[in-house]
Amino acid sequence: MQNMTEKAYAKINLTLDVLRKREDGYHDIKTVMQTVSLCDALEVEKDEKIRISASKPYIPTDKRNLVYTACERFFSATGVKGGARIRLKKFIPVAAGLAGGSSDAAATLRALNRLYRTKLTDDMLCEIASSFGADIPFCIKGGTALCEGIGEVITSLRPLPRANIVISIGGESASTPAMYAELSKRNAFSLIDNDGMIMAIDRGEIREIAGKLGNAFEDICAEKRPFIKEIKSAMLNSGALGACMSGSGPSVFGIFQNRKTAISCANMLKSKGYYAFYCTTV
Predict the structure, then answer these.
(1) 36: Cβ–Cβ under 8 A, 6 or more apart, which residues?
(2) Which of 11, 30, 90, 212 is catalytic?
């Protein structure tokens, strides 16, 4: 096996609660994450060194990119002597709360594991990943899961029923550290109904799932980015069963009963000048 293509799926947070600030400066969270079909694609082949190229000129191709770090950590952990040439085709918006960079790193670890036939289990890959990114372990496993700690404690849940999703972004990106800092400053830790969400998922009721969406960062992020509330209202007025911000923002997603309604909403948002993507759960 000399080369391969690996997909890197985006994630959305069905719920996201920040519980407390830890002594090490990180925050304990509790979140239900879900992978969606919006994805980047990585073409990976063996090389003597680590070489990265990207389809977008603003994507770094050096050690600032988590793909590069993933390569370094993989070769260090396995003792494999070699490198990789990786061509990154970027479709997931950056700094949007969709784990695009983390998913790219996860896809890199999966691809290298197959390419070099190191036979690491997902748990072994997650152990490597947890040293440089809290969302990466989830992105390795994907699906529907409850993530706790700083995101590295993962409990797989019943797969979400296939759902039609619209993701939309209206402008300025959000800094995750800045969002955590503002939350701590206000001591505005919320109580998101994670348990209710898990029960709704277990029952497989998409309308109930959509009614349990919640994100502790949403109101804070929306104060400086009014488009978040505008997009959310537009989605709900267009037939979304529920809508919510993902991650630390600023992307907003809506869950729809059927594909036609979802695509119509995405087209409407595009006509208003927003970025909008139709996708499904995977």
Answers:
(1) 9, 10, 11, 12, 165, 167, 279, 280, 281, 282
(2) 11
